[in-house]
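Annotators were shown the component list below and the corresponding predicted structure, then asked to write short factual statements about the assembly.
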Amino acid sequence: MKRLLCVAVAVVACSFACGGGMAPEKSVTPSSPRNGTSEDAPSSTNGSQPTAVPSHVDPQSPGNFARPPSRERADFERSAQQVDASIGECATACRALASMESAAHHLCDLGDAGECSVAQQRVVAARERVERACGKCR
Amino acid sequence: MRRALVMVMALALATALGLAACGKTEQNTSPDPSPQIVDNSVMAYLSMARARHHEANVQESQGDIAGALGALAQLAQAPTPHPGTTIPEVDEVLADTYARMAELELTRDGLDAAARDVNDGLLHAKDATFFRGHLLEVQGIIEEARGNRAADAGRPDEATQARKHAVELLREAIAIQEKVVQQKTEGDR
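Structure shown to annotators:
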């Protein structure tokens, strides 16, 4: 359920940040560190990150779009990645669980009671784990 | 399962589109040794794959198994983007498509055709992923059906052999899917 909440929050953030980031796309510095460095999102004091609009420029004037601060952008990108990953991971976890259930069912049909019991226990544990992380699978 | 499949494909496509829309091409600059190519041709392929699965859904819902298999076969035989390059999204689509074809063949007792589909699918799922686990699960079911058929035909040795193989495959499928569940839910314990 935590992930669902995270998804909801991040989707709102996504719609805001995507819309804000598209128009001034050309102005975004290409030197921003991206993947793999998101834990160390550059601060506004980083000299290699020209994040501030020069003081003589009105960021709201025509042709001078306000650029989201790089830290916020990094936060957004991290959130968006987490949303994508979280949704995809729960979908895959649910499919893996369904496959486990099917395999265990057929294993039980094949007759070894001990093996069947072990397989069913593993399915129950997996289902609990998935429900804890993702809620019930549809 | 069909809805889940469509959802996964939709997610793959939506993710790809989302990355493009937000101008996030940084994946190509990642130090990851296996380059991620999600460009227009990959997105078009994923969209086509989704359409083919929808088409198969419609055919299957009308009881037209041959029609559903035809739609999926067209997908399986369609040219893939960036030939010679491994693109995980494309391999996943193909592994999943072959698994579905095998399941459909099973519904009409096409055991040999189903086994061929699984083998084709396994070529696209070499790592211990959901897709490999699912293919092994289907292969186990095929062997179980083969064992039942042999038993009904009075061939007990063949039946025993097939069922033993089925147990091994189903065990392996459970082990893989268990790991997938653990990996995908890490951080929530």
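Statements collected:
1. DSSP finds three helices and no strands in chain A.
2. Helices of chain A lie at 2-22, 70-109, 113-134.
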